[in-house]
C-alpha cells in the first residue's frame, strides 16, 4: 500500500510571554534585513503595553509539534474619537515558514476575528496589495506628501509656543493627548505641544532616514492635518534646527498651504473594520512603537 504522509498538527493561538524567545527567533529568520536585537526590542516594547480587554498583547502564532512556525504581531490600543472610544489593531510583521504557508489563512482569520475592532495594515509590500484587498481591507491613504514646513511659515506665527510634551500646558488641552505624547516620547518619537493663547495642539513625529542618508521626520499624530498646516512654520523651524527639515505625512493628494510634493502610491495604507482612520493618526502603530 502507498505510504501516506501524516498531516501535521497545527493550531493557532495567542502569543504568550513564554513564546517570546521562539517568536523572536522565527521573525529573525523570516525578516533577514532586521537582526535579532531589533525583534527582541520589538517584543519588549509589546510586553510593556496593556492591550484593550480581550485583545492580545503580542499577536498570534501558528504552532506545530516543534514550536512556532508562523506569527503575526498586533499592536492593539484604545483611541478617542470625540466622545467615542475606538479599539484599533495594527497588523505587523506577518511571517509563516514556507512549508506551512497553506495554513497562513488560519493565522490571518484568527487575527481579524474581532468585529468591533478597526485593523490597520500600514506597510504592505506592493505584491501583497491584491491579497489584503481580497481579505476585505480598503485603502484609506493613497500616498505621502513630502513637505518642507520651514518654508510654509517664513513670516512666523505670532503668539505660538512649542512646549515640552512631558509637562501639561497651562492652556486648554485634552488629557488623553498628553498621554499619547508622553508614551510616544518614551518610544523614541519627537513629541511636543504647539500652544496658542487659547489651547495646546499635540504633535508626534518619528525621526527617520531616507535611503539611510537623508534625515526627515514622519508625522505620527496630530488632531487634524489642518493643525499641522497652521503651525508648519514654528514646527518646521524646530525640526530644521535639529537637522530634519523634511516632514512626510499621509495624504490623498497635494495639501493646500504646504510646500512640497505628493507621491501617489508611495507607502499606501489600508484598514478593515467599523472606523475609517483619519489622516494624521498613526498613534500606537509599528512606526511609533517599534520604529519599523
Descriptors:
24% helix, twelve-stranded mixed sheet, alpha+beta, 12 strands, 2 domains, Aminopeptidase, 292 residues
Report the sheet with the most strands, covering strand number, pairing sense and barrel closure. 12 strands, mixed
Q: Compute the separation of the termini in Å.
A: 52 Å
- Number of DSSP strands? 12
Quote the average pLDDT: 90
Summed up, the domain count is 2
CATH class of the largest domain: Alpha Beta
Radius of gyration: 21 Å
Shape: globular
CATH topology of the largest domain: Aminopeptidase
Order of helices and strands: EHHEEEHEHEEHEEEHHEEH
> What ranges have pLDDT less than 50 throughout 5 or more consecutive residues?
none
Describe it.
The protein is an alpha+beta fold. The chain has two domains: 11-116, Aminopeptidase; 143-266, Aminopeptidase. It is 24% helix and 34% strand. It has eight helices and twelve strands. A twelve-stranded mixed β-sheet has the order 1-2-3-4-5-12-6-11-10-9-8-7, with helices on both faces. α1 crosses α2 (36-48). The N and C termini lie far apart (52 Å). The mean pLDDT is 90.
Summarize the structure.
24% of the residues lie in helices and 34% in strands. The protein is an alpha+beta fold. A 12-stranded mixed sheet has the order 1-2-3-4-5-12-6-11-10-9-8-7, sandwiched between helices.
Which SSEs are present, and which pair or pack?
Elements: E1 11-14, H1 20-30, H2 36-48, E2 59-64, E3 67-81, E4 84-96, H3 104-111, E5 118-121, H4 129-134, E6 138-147, E7 161-164, H5 175-186, E8 190-195, E9 200-210, E10 214-222, H6 225-230, H7 232-241, E11 247-251, E12 260-272, H8 286-289
Parallel strand pairs: 4-5, 10-11
Antiparallel strand pairs: 1-2, 2-3, 3-4, 5-12, 6-11, 6-12, 7-8, 8-9, 9-10
Helix pairs in contact: 1-2
